């Protein structure tokens, strides 16, 4: 097993850093974003938004679970919050390997911030072969999707 690091590109969000943090630090707020009709609407408005094959999203303030193709069911929980700057998550027992995720937010100006997602995953060589590419693409897709959401 070895720790692999996957980092998204830095994306810009047209909302205040505090608003974005308040929204993302409560996982329940993400539930409507993954409604299939809402994803379809987002794709129509922003055709360049990558397709995220995510189903069965369920959440509380601190935990969420979903199915993602081709990985399967995944659950994550928030383990640390640093107001307006950082949200740390970890995988629960449904994830077949140890994974930690950081969502970092930095201000650009009064109405814009940057987001970057970093994932550390403890992967066996076999799992890395199966999901490594998907993790790399996934962190970029999620960062891109987060940059398209209206947070106010």
- What is the strand tally? 8
Largest sheet: 8 strands, antiparallel
Cα(first) to Cα(last) distance is: 42 Å
Kindly identify the CATH topology: Alpha-D-Glucose-1,6-Bisphosphate, Chain A, domain 4
Q: What's the Cα radius of gyration? A: 15 Å
Beta-strand residue fraction? 35-45%
Low-confidence stretches: none
Order of helices and strands: EEHHEEEEEEH
Overall geometry: globular
Descriptive overview:
- A hairpin with a 3-residue loop joins strand 4 and strand 5.
- With about 150 residues, the protein is of the alpha+beta class.
- About 20% of the residues are buried.
- It has three helices and eight strands.
- It has one domain: Alpha-D-Glucose-1,6-Bisphosphate, Chain A, domain 4, CATH 3.30.530.
- The mean pLDDT is about 85.
- The N and C termini lie far apart (about 40 Å).
- Strands 1, 2, 3, 4, 5, 6, 7 and 8 form an eight-stranded antiparallel β-sheet that branches.
Helices and strands, with pairings:
Layout: E1 2-7, E2 11-13, H1 17-24, H2 36-45, E3 54-59, E4 63-68, E5 72-82, E6 86-91, E7 98-109, E8 112-123, H3 125-148
Index terms:
152 residues; 8 strands; alpha+beta; Alpha-D-Glucose-1,6-Bisphosphate, Chain A, domain 4; eight-stranded antiparallel β-sheet; 41% strand; single chain
């Amino acid at each position: 097993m070895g720790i692999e690091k996957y980092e998204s590109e830095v994306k810009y969000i047209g909302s205040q850093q505090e608003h974005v943090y308040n929204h993302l630090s409560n996982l329940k707020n993400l539930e409507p974003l993954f409604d299939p009709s809402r994803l379809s609407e987002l794709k129509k408005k922003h055709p360049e938004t990558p397709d995220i094959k995510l189903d069965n999203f369920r959440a509380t303030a601190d935990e969420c679970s979903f199915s993602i193709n081709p990985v399967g069911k995944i659950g994550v929980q928030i383990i640390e919050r640093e107001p307006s700057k950082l949200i740390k998550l970890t995988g629960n027992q449904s994830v077949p390997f140890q994974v930690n995720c950081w969502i970092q937010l930095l201000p650009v100006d009064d109405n814009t911030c940057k987001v970057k997602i970093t994932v550390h995953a403890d992967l066996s060589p076999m799992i890395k072969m199966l999901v490594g590419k998907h993790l790399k693409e996934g962190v970029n897709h999620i960062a891109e999707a987060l940059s398209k959401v209206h947070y106010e």
